[in-house]
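Structure in, sequence out. Go:
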């Protein structure tokens, strides 16, 4: 398959993928300030800027235009089903992120970060596995993040059983992260497990060393 890359942006990009609440965005911001690179935050664009493409995709496929109701998404399901649906949707959402990235031009590297930038999707773009790293939280660090990050501590949608919805969400995130680890390991892409023993600055040091040849 030919990858359209008119400005060579995708070929020169660096990538951080992994599990929710591993500190991907924080580490990326630190690297941007240290090295003057441009960061593309996948999660922000996916949740906000891509809604028009999401609706168009549903129309083309004859699916309901409206988002599924919160009860169906968070309560009346299982973590396994949620994880499977999330992973199955990543390729379409990744294509939208590539459209965004193709339009960026910078004299410095462009770093793309987000949980939807899956190893198996990014791998065909990589000239070297060293252009990507996967950050995943240990179970203990995930629990810490859930306690201290307000946006992680609860499902924000109105549902009949918030506690069940949050349990489903946490279990789904763990399954999706484990899938990213399996994929990365099979492709020879480095996995960094974040356990809380190092602060964000120290994790950024490790990631900067990993990306070293491209940040000089």
């Amino acid at each position: 398959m030919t990858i359209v890359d008119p400005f060579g942006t995708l070929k020169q990009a660096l990538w951080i993928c992994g599990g929710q609440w591993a500190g991907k965005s924080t580490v990326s911001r630190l690297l941007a300030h240290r090295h003057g690179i441009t960061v593309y935050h996948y999660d922000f664009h996916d949740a906000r800027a891509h809604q028009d493409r999401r609706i168009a995709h549903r129309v083309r496929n004859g699916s309901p235009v409206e988002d599924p109701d919160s009860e169906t998404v968070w309560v009346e399901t299982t973590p396994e089903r949620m994880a499977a649906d999330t992973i199955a949707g990543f390729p379409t959402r990744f294509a939208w992120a590539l459209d965004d990235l193709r339009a960026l031009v910078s004299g410095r590297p462009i770093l793309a970060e987000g949980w939807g930038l899956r190893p198996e999707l990014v791998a065909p773009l990589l000239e070297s596995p060293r252009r990507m790293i996967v950050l995943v939280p240990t179970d203990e660090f995930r629990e810490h993040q859930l306690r201290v990050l307000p946006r992680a501590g609860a499902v924000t949608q109105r549902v009949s059983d918030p506690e069940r919805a949050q349990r489903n969400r946490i279990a789904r995130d763990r399954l999706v992260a484990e899938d990213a680890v399996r994929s990365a390991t099979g492709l020879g892409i480095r996995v960094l497990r974040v356990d809380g023993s190092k602060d964000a600055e120290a994790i950024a040091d490790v990631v900067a060393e990993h990306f070293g040849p491209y940040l000089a």
